[in-house]
């Protein structure tokens, strides 16, 4: 894990890979928990019997569940100190490429693409690449924006 002391240290890393998270187990319990929290009970996610008959052969994680792991993984990759406020600023591009089957393991690689000034702080653009263990294609690639204020 990188420990950064201030926005200037993060700004200096533009163009670099910030790191890769640890593996995260995708269990049916976690998929069900996400479904319950969002009230998205689509059967491909929550009905193992019906999902077994699908082309995937098993339940798959919600794409938004995969994306929602971004902050968890980012906290594993770096710690930011010396700021008054941090905010998720949104996403400019998200692509779900490969379904994440129950029983898979997922991790995220984080690349810092850009930084720009913001009134009272800085906005950062990262590329989040969600990798499925043993798969060639990623599960998801997203451009995430977040801001740190002095």
Any key phrases for this structure?
alpha+beta; 6-stranded antiparallel beta sheet; 150 residues; two-stranded parallel sheet; elongated
Structure description:
The protein has 150 residues and is α+β, with helices and mostly antiparallel strands. Helix content is 26%, strand content 41%. It contains 6 helices and 8 strands. It has helices at residues 7-11, 28-38, 43-46, 48-52, 63-68, 70-77, and strands at 2-5, 17-20, 24-25, 78-81, 85-96, 105-118, 121-132, 140-149. The strands form 2 sheets. Strands 2, 3, 5, 6, 7 and 8 form a 6-stranded antiparallel β-sheet that branches. A two-stranded parallel sheet has the order 1-4. Strand 6 and strand 7 form a beta hairpin. The mean pLDDT is 96.
Radius of gyration: 17 Å
Global structural class = alpha+beta
Provide mean pLDDT, rounded: 96
Shape: elongated
- Amino-to-carboxy terminus distance: 22 Å
Share in helix: 25-40%
Low-confidence stretches: none
The number of helical runs is 6
Largest sheet: 6 strands, antiparallel
Number of strands: 8
Order of helices and strands: EHEEHHHHHEEEEE
Strand content: 35-45%
Structural topology:
Elements (H helix, E strand, L loop, with lengths): L1 E4 L1 H5 L5 E4 L3 E2 L2 H11 L4 H4 L1 H5 L10 H6 L1 H8 E4 L3 E12 L8 E14 L2 E12 L7 E10 L1
Parallel strand pairs: 1-4
Antiparallel strand pairs: 2-6, 3-6, 5-8, 6-7, 7-8
Q: In short, what is this structure?
A:
The chain has 150 residues and is α+β, with helices and mostly antiparallel strands. Helices cover 26% and strands 41% of the residues.
């Amino acid at each position: 894990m990188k420990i950064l002391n201030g926005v200037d240290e993060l700004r200096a890393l533009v163009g670099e890979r910030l790191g890769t998270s640890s593996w995260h187990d995708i269990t049916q319990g976690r998929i069900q928990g996400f479904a319950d929290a969002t009230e998205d009970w689509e059967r491909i996610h929550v009905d193992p019997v019906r999902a077994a008959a699908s082309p995937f052969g098993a339940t798959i994680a919600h794409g938004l569940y995969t994306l929602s792991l971004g902050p968890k993984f980012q906290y594993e990759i770096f710690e930011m100190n010396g700021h008054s406020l941090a905010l998720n600023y949104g996403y400019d591009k998200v692509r779900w490429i490969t379904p994440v089957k129950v029983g898979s393991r997922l991790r995220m690689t984080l690349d810092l693409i850009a930084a720009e000034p913001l009134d009272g702080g800085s906005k950062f653009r990262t590329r989040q690449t969600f990798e499925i263990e043993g798969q060639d294609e990623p599960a998801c690639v997203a451009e995430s924006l977040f801001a740190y204020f002095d």
